TrEMBL record:
InterPro entries: Methyltransf_25, SAM-dependent_MTases_sf
Alphabetical list of SUPFAM superfamilies matching this protein: S-adenosyl-L-methionine-dependent methyltransferases (SSF53335)
Limits of the Methyltransferase domain: 59-149
GO molecular function terms noted in the UniProt entry: methyltransferase activity
Statement: the UniProt record of this protein carries the keyword ATP-binding: no
One record GO biological process: methylation
The name this protein goes by in its record: Methyltransferase domain-containing protein
One Pfam family recorded for the sequence: Methyltransf_25
Native source organism of the sequence: Streptomyces acidicola
Length: 277
């Protein structure tokens, strides 16, 4: 008589090879520390500092990369654990004081239930083209955060690539224009070996993200355009270099951050929700 076989756990999801290769180039660590990328960094920091509970609190930084945000969170007094699937990122983040790291995927978090006050996903949803995977990642955040705890996820807006391509001139290259036009309908940016600018990704419609939060069991609370319209203006790097003008740019972006008619103009969007009590 054949004996029943014990159930086996499904294999954890893995990062696509082309995405791993893109981030192993080591460019992510500097992206938010220089040039126009500083606007994304400072605005993300500003919004999170308003939303997060007072320190000390336990924060899980999922897909936290090299620890660009984990570093200042730890400096603010939070207990920060960073999870990332890229070995180079883990090596870089492990050097930061007050930050613990471990490998893992947003869709299968190496985390206990209700163990954190805050779960951040400031990158994973960029690279999950299928809705089921994005909801799965948000459901994992829901599982890992305590009742009443905060979940904040970043998405790239649907037309960010079009706007960026026009600003930098890439859109005038026929092959790049064809790739850009192809994802404007469904947001699926496909990897192309001859395109070094980005990799497999999903560019979200802002109006769709709250529904994904709800499907994952989270109570949606708000959305915040990160860069507003300032990132599309040619002199933004110069303005960010000037402390007085930088504060004016940040204040202007803050004024329109939740204006529904302008959410999709920003390059990136933060969506916040909570696990219900």
């Amino acid at each position: 008589m054949t004996q029943p076989q014990p159930a086996t756990e499904p294999s954890p999801p893995s990062l696509r090879d082309e995405i791993l290769a893109y981030y192993e180039r080591g460019e992510e660590d500097a992206r938010l520390k220089q040039g126009a990328g500083r606007l994304e960094f400072w605005r993300t920091q500003e919004v999170l500092r308003r939303l997060l509970p007072d320190a000390p609190a336990r924060v899980l930084d999922v897909g936290g990369g090299s620890g660009v945000h984990a570093e200042w969170l730890a400096g603010d007094g939070y207990e920060v654990e960073l999870v990332d699937p890229v070995p180079l990122h883990l090596e870089q983040a492990a050097r930061l004081p007050g930050v613990s790291v471990r490998p893992g995927d947003a869709r299968a978090l190496p985390a206990e239930d209700a163990a954190y006050d805050v779960v951040l996903l400031l990158g994973p949803l960029y690279h999950l083209p299928e809705r089921a995977d994005r909801v799965r990642a948000l459901a994992e955040a829901h599982r890992a955060v305590r009742p009443g705890g905060l979940v904040v996820a970043a998405t790239i807006n649907r037309f960010a690539g079009l706007h960026d391509g026009l600003q930098l001139g890439h859109y005038f290259v026929p092959s790049h224009r064809a790739r850009t036009d192809a994802y404007l309908g469904d947001g699926h940016h496909m990897h192309a070996p001859d395109d070094p600018l980005f990799t497999t990704a999903y560019f979200a419609d802002p109006t769709d993200v709250p529904g994904e939060f709800t499907e994952a069991g989270l109570a949606h609370e708000g959305q915040y355009g990160v860069e507003g319209v300032a990132w599309l203006m040619g002199r933004v790097e110069e303005w960010l270099d000037d402390p007085e003008r930088r504060e004016a740019v940040l204040a202007a972006s803050r004024r329109i951050e939740s204006e529904p008619s302008l959410l999709g103009v920003s390059g990136h969007l933060l969506t916040a929700g909570r696990r219900r009590l």
